[in-house]
Amino acid sequence: MSRYAAALSQHPIPAHAVGEIAGSLLEQLEGEPPDLLVVFASPQFVGALEDMTAALRSLLEPGVLVGMTAAAIIGGAVEIEGPPALSAWAARVDGSVTPVGLHTVNTPDGPAISGWPAPGTGAEDDAIGGAHTLLLFADPFTFPVETFVERLDDDHPDLQVIGGLASAATGPGANRLLLDDELRSDGAVGVLLAGAPTVRAVVSQGCRPIGSAFIVTDAHDNTIRELAGKPALERLAEIAEALSDGERLLLSQGLQIGVVVDEHQADFGRGDFLVRSVLGASKQDGSITVGTSVGVGRTVQFQVRDAVAADEDLGELLSGATARSALLFACTGRGERLFGTPNHDAELVEELLGPLPLAGAFCAGELGPVGGRNHVHAFTASLALFGD
Questions:
Q1: CB within 8 Å of 157: residues ≥ 6 apart
Q2: Domains in the chain, please, with CATH?
Q3: Residues of the chain by 3-state class (helix, strand, coil), percent to 5
Q4: In the structure, how many helices (H) and strands (E) does the chain have?
Q5: Which of 220, 244, 247, 246 is closest to 232 using CA atoms?
Q6: What's residue 106's pLDDT?
């Protein structure tokens, strides 16, 4: 049976933070080395991170160490937004843990991703080895994570991808990714999990629908011209007219659109939509531009996001769920900025599933499956729930 542990340190001195983390994890694991150690560090520790990870590797002797820097750090029921913090999650498992390190390289045929075994050679199947989950941490400035995830969906539809994009920097070169004894400032790192334990993905997009669902009757790429035979803006105006003043304010602060994932369903509810932002509109032809390609015949519904919807969505998705441990990847747009109070997502996970070993980070993009395909999300809380 798998064993889990998690620890959080808010000590500003790197050596003391490492000591607190290592001591707590060793105690929880009764001195046994973890097969997997996942580390999340705040930006204040970037300069000392090489020494910190070397010390953790020496003290804990993990089979694989992986991690990243992030703007805010999660440990247990606590979300540390601003002050220095170090969080770590450890697991002893019966299955296999395979490290993955990825880079973008230039080739005569254009950019390519190195580090993933080439398909058709047998090496890719050997590397995946029946893996069910890829925990992936990527630098948003140097790695084409959306393209990579789309390709994985096509080549390995049974492989779920959970994780997030490093958020400790506002430009390339300042984020840090950890993989065993390597400290990287670009690309992506992760681990492939095969066999035990079971891992369930939960992706809370934090939105609620407004108005009715419509069939797209005219569209090109990510521009929707008509919804159910009328200009898209006209449909939106009809919906806005029927809203309360409070709902209109939410609409003006960031309109979203949900694209139904499985068109074979008779009814659509929470979790049936892939939510993307409405990026713009044209009064000239009544079209709207959205954050994904939408084909004619797809079903869509406008959405709004607020603290109430985000709370209800995460609570409903976790209701009835069970887990022995969890990793949480929350958008930097959540936290106190959205909810007005600290620790919302972490506390809700602890309340509904815990107490349990929990670690995580605030991300510049969250990874998780919706409707059977993996996606890069924004404003979400994406969880990996670990069982036996």
A1: 372, 373
A2: 3-197+324-386 (no CATH), 207-305 (2.40.10)
A3: 25, 40, 35
A4: 9, 27
A5: 220
A6: 83
Alpha helices in 170-300 (DSSP H): 232-241, 245-253
Provide Rg for the chain, Cα atoms: 21
Pairing of strands 110-114, 72-75: unpaired
The per-residue pLDDT of the chain, averaged, comes to 93
Beta bridge partners, 302, equal 257
**This prediction's pTM:** 0.93
Report yes or no: 1 and 94 within 8 Å, Cβ to Cβ.
yes
The C-alpha atoms of residue 327 and residue 307 are separated, in whole angstroms, by 22
pLDDT of residue 276: 93
Q: Using N-to-C axis directions, what is the helix angle for 14-28 and 49-60, rounded to 10°? A: 30
Beta bridge partners of 331: 363
Cis peptide before 355 (omega within 30 of 0): yes
Which two three-digit tokens encode residue 135? Answer: 């925990």
Tell me: the pLDDT tens digits for 114-173? 998 765 555 556 667 789 999 999 999 999 999 999 999 999 999 999 999 999 998 999
Q: What is the pLDDT of residue 261?
A: 86
Write 334-343 long-range contacts (CB < 8 A, 24+): 334/206, 334/310, 334/362, 334/379, 334/381, 335/72, 335/79, 335/81, 335/362, 336/81, 338/307, 338/310, 338/379, 339/307, 339/310, 339/311, 340/307, 342/79, 342/81, 343/77, 343/78, 343/79
- Which value, to the nearest 10 degrees, does the dihedral of the CA atoms of residues 284, 290, 295, 299 take? -100
Give every residue of the chain whose pLDDT is below 70, as ranges. 118-127, 266, 270
**Cα gap 44→363, rounded to integer Å:** 16
Rounded to the nearest 5°, which phi and psi values hold at 336?
-60, -30
The pLDDT assigned to 120 comes to 53
Give the list of residues 6+ apart from residue 340 with CB closer than 8 angstroms, or none. Answer: 307
Tally of CA atoms within 13 A in the half-sphere of 312 that contains its CB:
11
Q: Could you tell me the two tokens for 46?
A: 């970037």
Taking CA atoms, 184 is separated from 50, 127, 145, 187, 376, in Å, by 10, 22, 16, 8, 21
